[in-house]
Automatic annotation (TrEMBL):
Signal peptide: none annotated. This is NADH-FMN oxidoreductase RutF, flavin reductase (DIM6/NTAB) family. PANTHER family: FLAVIN REDUCTASE, FMN REDUCTASE (NADH) RUTF. It comes from the Bacteria. Keywords: Oxidoreductase. InterPro entries: Flavin_Rdtase-like_dom, NADH-dep_flavin_reductase, Split_barrel_FMN-bd. Pfam families: Flavin_Reduct. The keyword Oxidoreductase applies. GO terms for molecular function: FMN binding; riboflavin reductase (NADPH) activity. Residues 12-161 form the Flavin reductase like domain. SUPFAM superfamilies: FMN-binding split barrel.
Length: 166
């Protein structure tokens, strides 16, 4: 028997992760969402993947524009992460009013001040149910300034950061 939606959610709450804003552009139209489902995929060729809800605007723009930006967030970006998750009451079109964004070579918007940003073209999109696995060819990597890393993380419904063990 299949597990319930609640069992799925209960389990996934314990699968903590780094928080990213995944972006896309189709011409002049930008879209983006907050996502923890982002993973390094292949070193040769350089690829990553992001799992994106097929019902949303971002998926639409990723599919049409074939561009993908991945911005790894720091703790200072908590409010921005909430905005791109639709948690602050702002509409989708206002998302990019927060933060300082520039257009990467692929056309996707990247965030100035991210821990690191990846500019990708879309290699392939695999239907996986409610979400799609979007595989990106990494065309450029922009590593943020500064040595201190304070990644924004999400676990059990809470925002936090990485704590090294001593
Ligand atoms: C911490 C966190 C992680 C999330 N991770 C993902 C994810 O990996 N993929 C996804 O499609 N949505 C994820 N979401 C939900 C989207 O951010 C949210 O549904 C967003 O409003 C969708 O925007 P869209 O309508 O432009 O697609 C996450 C939300 C939060 C708060």
């Amino acid at each position: 028997m299949a597990i319930s939606k609640d069992q799925f959610k209960q389990g996934m709450r314990r699968l903590g992760g780094a928080v990213n804003i995944v972006t896309a552009a189709d011409g002049e139209v930008w879209a983006g969402l907050t996502a923890t489902a982002v993973t390094s995929l292949s070193a040769e060729p350089p690829r990553l993947l992001a799992c994106i809800n097929r019902q949303g605007v971002t998926y639409d723009i990723v599919s049409k524009g074939r561009t993908l930006g991945v911005n790894v967030l720091g703790t200072a970006h908590k409010a921005l992460a909430m905005r791109f998750a639709g948690m602050d009451g702002e509409g989708e079109t206002e998302r990019f009013d927060g933060g300082n964004w520039f257009t990467a070579k692929s056309g996707a918007p990247l965030l100035t001040g991210a821990l690191v940003s990846f500019d990708c073209t879309v290699e392939s999109i695999l239907d996986a149910g409610s979400h799609a696995i979007v595989i990106g060819n990494i065309e450029a990597v922009k590593v943020g300034a500064g040595d201190t890393l304070d990644p924004l993380c999400y676990l059990d419904g809470e925002w936090g950061t990485f704590q090294p063990l001593v």
